Automatic annotation (TrEMBL):
UniProt keyword annotations, A-Z: ATP-binding, Coiled coil, Microtubule, Motor protein, Nucleotide-binding
Residue numbers binding ATP: G106, V107, T108, G109, S110, G111, K112, T113
Organism: Daldinia eschscholtzii
Domain Kinesin motor, residue spans: 11-558
PANTHER family hit by this protein: KINESIN-LIKE PROTEIN SUBITO, KINESIN-RELATED
Protein name (record): Kinesin-like protein
Pfam families linked to this entry: Kinesin
Coiled coil recorded as keyword: yes
Protein family (similarity comment): Belongs to the TRAFAC class myosin-kinesin ATPase superfamily. Kinesin family.
Domain of life, per lineage: Eukaryota
Length: 846
């Protein structure tokens, strides 16, 4: 197998890092061996020997470089050439930079997060890359403090519809200050280790173990961040855990027992994992205690975090600097997001509470083309923070990690449940040209979630569904990586099936040159430089490790060992005529001594699914028969291997699909709940609006009605000649009443007289024959029809008046009084009714 070519056509340089043995696996057989470099001074090949099964193929893999267990973070930083990646984004020779992508891939617990983010005592590649970046541009960097217009100018040139803010504003909202006085918005210098500013905050000093069971001779400061409401604090540790209880003040007992107890099962090292310090880790840990199907870890609302007083400083790279463009101004903008269940979530935007829902939620973001970036997809709507120095960038990183989803599983006590993206955008423009647009190139650092087997990880419910999604996305990533072994495919994005899921889209979208003119650069963008670090445990899970290595390695070779017993069986069948004894002995001896059969190189999965081996016609000689038989066996063994691998993959795909269904069901339930809440809120709002409108209309109508009745009463009162007056005094009242009584009496007498006359006339009329009957209107003693009608009117009026006066004399006053303020409807109606009754009676008389 040829050693991998450095440079050139592959989309990713692929490095392999082996992790030191975990205590739990110390007795296990080592299946991964690093081959001695022949021409190269650094190892590039490894061999996988299947444990406990001598019949399985031995596989050999080639990588750009292999880092053995003793490799330090600094070795990694130098060996995988982070410096050229940083220089790529800085574009020291002018023009636009080249995007860089640094990602880790591996089985759960193999050391991905450790490599990228480090531990409490050692910085990871992320911190080292940031350190070298900021140091390299320190004389050319502009930040919001020195250039107030920076925020606006960056916002106007940003193509991703991002919410851009300064680091000071972001840190101010995310962190509480140590000092209760909250003197300023700036954090204390993180690289300086010291006691907390606030003397009220207790601190203890305990040494950080560097390796299991080892403690450095000189005290080394590390930080522990607890987000318990009452215990939020940062502790400086400077004694071994064995002594910590004697030194820790009683108030810290809770903190110490939570943070410092070395955990052997599932947590191989007493070193606390970087991610274990986050609140999300704690939530997930709680979740794994009672994982029920469909359970979701509630996201905590963003609380103010405690400002860390110190960050690890080792390894020291203060002498390392990348070249930058001296004629350019630089600005650094940081964003962080995670891909969880195939959806993108911002890690720098606090979760929001939806209407009526107590659980805070994040809104998934879109990976799409925008107006300012029509030919390139970007994650739209992220929060981006402009950082002027390393300290600010580390604080932003810390805040984002606090939101990252992690959980304790059977394979890793602090397992990443999402693919984390940390993006450092380096903006560049010509020095002093404040009006020119910012050029943009990005260094993305990706900590992928690890593949895991549900059986080993002992996951259930939501954590199992997450694992299914993780495995599914890693399977797609594997397919894409396999395609890169074919050098011709690298410039043809269509041949790399990277659009199958969000993860591969995000990782590969910039791997190919853009086809059209870029709106921001007026030129073709160079494809990104990709570096993939594959992490593996040489005594961990063989099947999971070999699967990852198969699709990530740059080259592969399979050697199938000879198996005498099977060969002899075939030969025995073939030479059934008594030659079997001779054949068997010769085969046995040859098989044992001959070299293994080389089966094939990459790609492992042949597109057609088969491997063609041409055999020459079987010669008569035993030797030729044996060779053919051995080849046949090798082919069949290879096929079995391949089928086994396919079966494993299919099984995992099925599990992933099942998990996907579960997570979709959960999502549907969530969506339904959200929609219900929205509908409910909407309905409530509309109801309130309608009620308001209805009440307004009702009161208007009431007012109108009252006015209307008031007017009617007024007209009525005027028509009967009653003046609505308010009696001025009791004397006046008495006087008025006397007058009214006299008037009533005279009117009653008049009325009586008229009735009598009418009765007489009626009698006269009824005594006459109809023919002799003279019409009343012709009679001299009877008033004319007109007079009659006027009499009727007069009678009606009189009755009416009488009634009105009666009313006036008694409760009438009250009615009229009421009429000025309220509605005397009933009374007035009564008056009218009486009047009509009276008229009707009169009509009857007629
Ligand atoms: N090279 C190493 N040196 C020392 N400790 C290591 C190394 N690699 C990993 N570890 C330790 O092993 C444990 C698991 O590592 P880590 O969390 O980085 O795994 P991971 O691959 O990120 O897992 P997951 O995919 O589940 O998130 C941690 O406690 C870490 O400190």
């Amino acid at each position: 197998m040829e050693p991998p070519q450095k440079g050139h056509a592959n989309l990713f340089q692929v490095y392999l890092r082996l992790r030191p043995p975990q205590i739990a696996n110390l007795g296990s057989e080592r299946f991964l061996l690093v081959e001695e470099p022949v021409d190269h001074d650094t190892p590039t090949h490894i061999t996988l020997n299947p444990p406990n099964d001598r019949r399985r193929a031995i596989e050999k893999f080639a990588f750009t470089r292999v880092f053995e267990e003793d490799a330090t973070q600094l070795d990694l930083f130098q060996g995988i050439r982070v410096l050229p990646l940083v220089e790529g984004v800085l574009a020291p020779h002018g023009g636009d930079g080249t995007d860089g992508l640094l990602a880790t891939l591996g089985v759960t617990g193999s050391g991905k997060t450790h490599t990228m983010l480090g531990s409490r005592s050692q910085r990871g590649l992320t911190q080292l890359a940031l350190d070298v970046l900021f140091r390299s541009i320190e004389s050319n960097i502009v930040d919001c403090e020195t250039t107030p217009t920076l925020e606006t100018s960056i916002r106007s040139s940003d193509a991703s519809e991002a919410a851009i803010c300064s680091a000071s504003a972001f840190i101010e909202t995310m962190y509480t200050d140590f000092s209760s006085s909250r003197g300023g918005s700036r954090a204390t210098t993180p690289m300086i280790v010291g006691p907390p500013n606030n003397p009220d905050q207790p601190a203890t000093h305990i040494t950080t173990p560097l390796l299991p069971g080892c403690f450095p001779s000189s005290p080394q400061s590390v930080r522990l961040v607890s987000h318990d409401d009452d215990l939020s604090r940062i502790i400086h540790l400077s004694t071994p855990p064995s002594q910590k209880e004697e030194i820790a003040p009683p108030t810290l007992t809770q903190v110490a027992s939570f943070k410092l107890k070395p955990k052997l099962a599932g947590s191989p090292s007493p070193q606390k994992h970087y991610m274990s310090l986050t609140s999300a880790a704690r939530i997930k840990k709680n979740l794994t205690k009672c994982p029920i199907k469909g359970d979701h870890a509630p996201l905590t609302p963003r609380k103010n975090l405690q400002r860390p007083s110190a960050f690890p400083q080792a390894p020291d790279i203060s002498s390392v600097r990348a070249s930058c463009d001296p004629s350019a101004d630089y600005a650094v903008v940081i964003s962080m997001y995670e891909v969880y269940n195939d959806r993108i979530f911002d890690l720098l935007t606090p979760p929001i509470r939806s209407n009526g829902n107590k659980e805070p939620r994040r809104r998934p973001l879109l990976f799409k083309s925008t107006e300012l970036s029509p030919d390139r997809k970007v994650v739209a709507g992220l929060r981006k923070v402009i950082c002027g120095n390393l300290k600010d960038a580390l604080m932003v990183l810390e805040a984002g990690l606090n939101e990252r989803r992690v959980a304790g599983t059977g394979s890793n006590s602090v397992s990443s449940r999402s693919h984390g993206f940390f993006c450092v955008e380096v903006k560049k423009r010509r020095r002093g040209r404040h009006s020119s647009r910012w050029g943009n190139s990005t260094l993305s650092i990706v900590d992928l979630a690890g593949s895991e087997r549900a059986r080993d990880a002992k996951t259930q419910g939501a954590t199992l569904a997450e694992a299914g999604k993780i495995n599914e996305s890693l399977m797609y990533l594997g397919q894409c990586l396999q395609m890169q072994s074919d050098a011709s495919s690298t410039t043809k994005p269509n041949l790399v099936p990277f659009r199958q899921c969000k993860l591969t889209e995000l990782l590969f979208a910039n791997s190919f040159p853009t086809g059209s003119l870029s709106s921001s650069t007026n030129g073709r963008r160079a494809p990104q430089k990709g570096v993939m670090i594959v992490t593996a445990d040489p005594i961990g899970d063989f099947n999971a490790t070999s699967q990852i290595l198969r699709y990530s390695a740059l080259a592969r070779e399979v050697t199938v060992p000879r198996i005498p017993s099977i060969t002899s069986t075939i030969l025995a069948n073939r030479n059934s005529s008594g030659q079997s004894q001779r054949s068997e002995s010769s085969v046995g001896s040859r098989s044992d001594t001959s070299s293994p059969v080389l089966v094939h190189h990459r790609p492992f999965y042949h597109p057609s699914g088969t491997h063609s081996h041409t055999f020459s016609p079987a010669p008569d000689t035993e030797r030729a028969t044996m060779e053919n038989a051995a080849l046949e066996i090798a082919r069949m063994a290879d096929m079995i291997d391949q089928l086994n691998a396919e079966l494993t993959q299919e099984t995992e795909t099925r599990m992933a699909a099942e998990a996907h269904v579960l997570s979709m069901e959960d999502r549907m339930a969530d969506l339904e709940q959200e929609i219900r809440e929205e509908c409910y809120a909407d309905f409530e709002q509309r109801l309130a609006l309608e009620m308001g409108r209805w009440k307004a209309t009702l009161s208007l109508e009431q007012e109108r009605g009252e006015e209307h009745w008031d007017r009617k009463v007024e007209v009525l009162a005027r028509s009967v000649g009653v003046t609505v007056t308010t009696p001025s005094s009791d004397e006046d009242n008495v006087e008025d009443e006397d007058k009214e009584n006299i008037l009533i009496e005279s009117l009653e007498q008049e009325n009586e007289r008229l009735r009598r006359e009418v009765a007489i006339l009626k009698r006269e009329l009824s005594g006459r024959t109809p023919s002799k009957r003279t019409p009343l209107r012709e009679r001299g003693d009877v008033p004319s029809a007109r007079a009659s009608s006027s009499t009727t009117d007069t009678l009606g009026d009189l009755g009416n008046r009488l009634e009105q006066l009666r009313v006036n004399s008694g409760e009438g006053k009250k009615v009229l009084k009421v009429s000025s303020s309220g509605s005397p409807t009933k009374k007035v109606r009564k008056l009218q009714t009486r009047r009509w009754e009276g008229t009707a009676a009169d009509d009857d008389l007629m």
